[in-house]
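Morning F.,

Quick status update on the modeling queue. The single chain you submitted on Monday has been processed. Sequence for confirmation:
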Amino acid sequence: MEITQYISLYEHALFEDVLPFWFQFSPDRDYGGTFSCLDREGNIYDTDKFVELLARQVWIFSKLYNRWEQKSDWLDMASIGSGFLSSFGRDDTGNWSFSVDRTGRVLKAGGGYACACQAAMAFSQYGLASGEEQPQEIALETFRSLCHSMEHPEDDVSEETGTSRRLISLKDTIGLAQLTMEMEWLLKKNEISSILDICTDRILGAFHNTDFNIFHEYAAPDGTHPDCFEGRLLCPGRSLEAAWTLLDIARRRDDVSLIDRTSRIILSTLDYSWDKKNGGLHSFLDIQQKPIDRLDWDLKLWWVHAEALVAILTSFSITGGKSQKSWFEKIHNYTWDHFPDPEYGEWFGYLNRAGEVHLDLKGGMGKGCCRLPRALFFCIKEFKRMRKKADQP
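Structure tokens below.
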């Protein structure tokens, strides 16, 4: 397809399919906030609310309002989630919860780094969109706490692994990097540069496997990789998200060396993670090809392919490489052939290894309104960059 055809396809998917689904079915008009547990047709099958997904939905509608079009409906949608989160999302000490019931009563405390990071991102963008001071204050307060945790990993026991083994998380590191760039309008330049340096060094140091040229999901604080399930774990979607985050940093700094290094990591990750028998990307792998403790390792997940689209397209947009072009077409074709639901809208999230629908829900505890619309939006921006570059004499 030509670039204009890609733009048309991705814009239609985002603005005429995905966003309208969530706009119609997710808002809780009675108690505030948004539902994420939606079945294939958009029916609510569980009214519990998950802080990270709530925050992500606030972010996407605020981001689109700030960077695409100032539509009042988008700001209203962001406001529904922002108001609920500010009232019920965290306790008196500033710790963000994992989940609450429909009315805001805490069900599970200790949302950890991921919930806090997404909350700060949401309130930053909503504060920019609304002009209100309270969201900006929440974003800055949460950001400072996150920075302290990142700079002192020895103070924390890994929440994700549920053990006393001290590990740092690739998810947390890229989350802070993305948050720092999102909050550029609220931060000083030297602070931005310092945090991005820490995140970049950690991603390319502690998490990088030089033998395979890919990223680990976890590492010990000293940068080693314990010979255990977590220490050997590779999550292709996270690795590719880390890669496009590095490309964002490299583009800001006009760092050609970082662009080249990251682009090679993207190609290595895709080659290592591609299911050569059935197509699509594996969800989890063991770096040493030992038995893995993730029973969903061979599912084909929407978010893994969404992150892959952003990573390989961004690399191709910057470098124009033939390998990047080939991989983008391969990922694009698999994704669009398997995940969209033409009958009821939005995308399926969970396929089996053969590419058949495994769960036909549209949202749940892990899938909400963010990763897919974010990927579509970022891809649209890259396509437009490419078109602009092609139109230049």
